[in-house]
Amino acid sequence: MQPISLARRLGLVAVALGVFGAPSAWADRLDDIKARGTLICATLNSSEPLGYQDPVSRKTVGFDVDTCAAIAQRLGVTLDLRSVSVEARIAELSLGRVDLIAAALGYTKERAQQIAFSDAHYQVPIKLIVKTDSTLNALADFKGKKISANKGSTPELYARRRTEAEVVTFQDPPAAFLALQQGKVDGLALAAPSAVRFVNETGGKFRFAAEALAFEATALGVKKDEPALLAAVNKALADMEAAGEIDALWNKWYGPNTKFNLPREKKLTPISSFE
Q: Where is the Solute-binding protein family 3/N-terminal domain (predicted)?
């Protein structure tokens, strides 16, 4: 066999580039998802009713799980559900281990530098839970006190930003609430959909402080520089909103016939409104 000349080699390289394109042209996550036939979506697994383990089926269920399934259906693929912790959400997405994050992901400008956010499909207040006999109500009352929060969560961020309390972090809401029950902290910072369960199920021993930490826009997370996937997710959310599906999912998990009884106060809102 005769050796291939330099000119011939260069020609083959040019043909290859013409067929396959530069890496930035063909490395498209949406194409990968459709070729694979699955959407890898990560949710929490210990935050009822967003994502938690059903005691009977032992499967992870919840509002975020159903949202992932609806997005996958509209993309024409099946759902590959993964569990993720609060502190690992952004890392798992940035490393490309998952396609989409639906895990109580509150929008912040700091996070938007690391990942891309879909439009906000709901907004909730971040509350402070205290003991019923506590005198703490205004944010200023927490100066010099201790507040527990999920490590890496938006409630942790706002507790540090808006109070002069010492913030003590835990791996999940039950552990953070246990610290409050045991008197190790004076308050617990948590988004209302998760917080209301602890208030409602403790026989009047706990209540919300009068002043909320913030009003949080919650969205889905996509890896940076994946405009096609982000656009497809936003299109799916818009279709779901128009069909009343997001409202239906919210009522299923949070509505008047649940122990949470929380209204969905805000409709789908462009994430640009919060930038």
A: 38-257
pTM for the structure as a whole: 0.75
- What's the Rg (C-alpha) of the chain? 22
Domain co-membership, 112 together with 38:
yes
Q: How many helices (H) and strands (E) does the chain have?
A: 11, 13
Q: What is the mean pLDDT of the chain?
A: 90
How far is it, in rounded angstroms, from Cα 267 to Cα 265? 7
Q: Is the pLDDT of residue 7 over 60?
A: no
For 131, the token pair is 């003991």
User: What is the total residue count of the chain?
Assistant: 275
Provide the edge-to-edge strand list for the sheet that holds 46-47. 46-47, 51-53, 60-61
What is the enclosing helix (H) or strand (E) of 59? none
User: Domain for residue 129, yes or no?
Assistant: yes
The DSSP output letter for 269 is: B
Residue 54: CATH number of its domain? 3.40.190.10
> Residues 69, 94: one domain?
yes
- C-alpha 73/C-alpha 69 separation (Å) is 6
